[in-house]
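Below is our example:
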Amino acid sequence: MVVPELRPWRAARPRLARAAGAVRPRLTRAARALGPRVARFARATAPRLTGPKTWQYTAGAATAGLALAAGVVTAAGPWDSTGQRTAERDRAVALDHTGGADHGRGPGTAGPPRPAPSAGAVLAGLGGTSAPAPAAPRGEALAGVLGPLLEDPALGARHAASVVDLATGKRLYGTAVGTPLTPASTTKIATAVAALGALGPDHRLTTRTAYEADTGELVLVGGGDPTLTARKKAKGLASLRTLADKTATALKKRDVRRVTLSYDTSLYAGSEMHPIGVNDNLAPVTALMADEARTDGSTSGPAPRVSDPAADAARTFAGLLRAHGVKATPPGPSKATGRADTLATVASPPLSALVERMLTNSDNDLAEALLRHTAVATGKRADFAGGAAALAARLKHLGLPVKGSEFHDGSGLDRADRLTAGLLTGLLTTAADPDRPGLRAALTGLPVAHFTGTLADRYPDGAAGLVRAKTGTLTGVNTLAGTVVTRDGRTLGFAFLASETTDPQAAQAALDRLASALADCGCR
């Protein structure tokens, strides 16, 4: 699977303008449709709104990351970890002017903080409308639009479809809704919902150092954060350099200049190797790695990986300690004991930001990490089998239709995974539920058609900016699941799964036509 880098927003400026003009009317209608639901959400979560950044994130996320404001940047997404739309910040730079206050920084932003245009209070705008909500599409009309498109031979011998109204959760259309099929990377939606539900959106992954004075052993303890970075510019991520600096300072206060260095990966259990074997799409799954064990300087997509990420990270850490005047032995595996004192820690961005990164970039390393953290949080063994069991149990706990589903990993790279179209749209509906604001990142992280992530080069016309969806591609498998704003301003959730496809490009185009048809459909 090829995951393209996020393209510069400056290059996207003309498309932003075109998409804004096309989607503004239907975004306004969508706001009216979802107004009462958002108002309920606001009342339910009022005690949680503790500051401007929290307000922006919670309010914006309430309507599934789509149809939230009638301004230009609404269709551009995605959101950063503070809730500020990344597109708002970057568009100000692309237009060569600034405005508003600094709303915070996303983990992938370089350089000093950029002033961003202030977004209006979304909930206030929605709550002020008295216009009636547009009616949801009728099932018969949807069948007339989608049925012929689903007959496209490019979708293979087996396929399934489900369309739901996110405002009510009602299924509007379905075929083979309960048939388990190979989901490929749409599995990540399930991983996202399970992890957010088990850990909460504010949870962070912590890497630390522990020192045992009696033995002089310093242990680098992996916290299961694949985004831990050794690069000079951390860009909001947990920094191995910062950890080395803080650790060396703490050691010098103890008058320690030489240590026996070890590393601890005991947070995870079982095999590090995914069933697909050595593959550029995924590093060995271990609780300690830096920069996803990439050897080519990339930040997303397939890349060569080091064979032993933990040992490599520990060797890098030893070099960083040496630069701070602390000598370390060649590192080896160990485990921090209860007698060891924690010297320093660094923490990842919040889980909501990690989930968004995982979905936008189809990040397999993060997906497998979040699967194991879900296992740890729910008392399961932190390996492939335990993580899969924890994922299924968490979804069942949320009342989702898991019958027929089979999970074997968190990324969807395992061809033995099975999900149903009904489960995927159930996940989207649950993440859009105003009573579950902690799950919102499972929607706000979805790639935006023709703008971000794995949809950056798709939907050049019509549905650009209106479709937000997770893609899935394996040999003979093509899938798409996400949200779309219809011509009448209704926000729908959809899932299309195709198996036994023979031409991946043709299958992908057929899936895009299905989503585009929903965007263009009033279907009354």
